[in-house]
Amino acid sequence: MDTDCLISAGRNVNTPFRLQVRKPDRGMAEIEFVRVLRLLPTKRIVALARDEGQPILVKTFLGRHATRNAKREIQGIGHIVDANVRTPRLMWEGSLRGGGRLLAFEFLPDAVSLFEQLERCESERFEVLSGVMEIMAKLHDHGVVQKDIHLANFLLSDGQVHTIDGGDIQRKNSRALAEGPSIANLALFFAQFLARHDDLAPRAFASYETARGWREDPGRVDRLMNEISRSRESRKRVYIGKTFRDCTRFVCRSSFTRFMICERKAFTQEMQGLLEEPDTFIEDGRMLKRGNSSTVSLVHLSDRSLVIKRYNIKGLFHGLRRAFRKSRAWISWTNAFRMEFLDIPALKPVALIENRLGPLRSNAYLVTEYVEGPDALECLRDTKTPNGELEALASILQKLAESQISHGDLKATNFLMSQSGPVIIDLDAMREHRSRQQFARAFKQDLERFMENWRDNPMLTNRFSRLLSELNHRYGASLK
What is the DSSP string of 164-220? Predict the structure, then answer.
């Protein structure tokens, strides 16, 4: 394969394949690409490869900016090394036939990402984060920052933390980074953790202060926590924004009469047929709901079961009111990915379709994964000895409260009890509130609506009242 083939392949780069590379002082060599780890179509490929049988990690730069991007990577790696921070060794740099550059790095066979390590060993989170703080202190002491810092930029190998991705490393100046930029860079790192883990940040930050030789300062910690909140909100907006455009995860098609977006891994030929004729699949499927405002049908494809929800236009005046507003399918899609970002169990969206006439919206469709299991009302109605279901439902309400999100219709039938736990559905009335007062009013109504489900079951009413007592005290809901 040559660079023209790699560029024309776009996202469809299949391994294994071989690539001719001109190595320094050794002429042309053939590198075998074993597994693609990261792909930016027509621009960059990160892969596990073999050079004369030895495993290496390669970064391949393509396109007209290949040389510039490779130099930026090399320069960033140099900044990491100058700060005395571990990073996989750059072994050699090569050029590709037809244009492009290739950087060969030492391969760490036992390496795991920081994210994997933190998920795997909760008991070691503080110790691992303290080690990362010491590394960031070294970088900052040398005026070095990671612009696009994220958990995948740190690898653990042989008990040591390695910093990677030199392309996003910048040296701001020859002196140590000032307090303000340091806190801003640290906030970008901590913002990747869920808000419920924010108690880790001040403790880990103490290790950073010690490494920088700073005295403890509560005001500095407060500034860090405020900056974390701002950074997390920015990350969330970017995360949700990506769900509406063509990218690695999604296929997006937009025209004057139609908008469609679908999970790329689900965009099979069969799925494309469903997206072209959703009404046919709805009528041929098993009807779950046929109402004026929406129609819901369960359909079976060869590899999966899906639920299609069509948000109907009930008439001319209803259509005029909805034409200039985001469709309920659009809102549900947005809220589903907001739930994903916040790690709150919710329906898994697969595709979104809006029929349009320029800026005017009409019927819309939301395609989601099928969740097998009864709703919470059916599941708990005759349950004498609940087995964690009540605690799981209360946990979802707690997470919603932490994120200042109201659901708008917390009836028991809007919770499906899957094998892995409850899943919240019907997200088109869900709202994320900026005002604490507005959220408190809306969430109070959510809690009271939730408790109405169990009015005829004193045992469940009492159990939920105890589990939700803290939320009740905070928002003044009547849980009896």
Answer: --GGGEEE--SSPPPHHHHHHHHHHHHTTS-GGGTTHHHHHHHHHHHHHTPPP-HHH
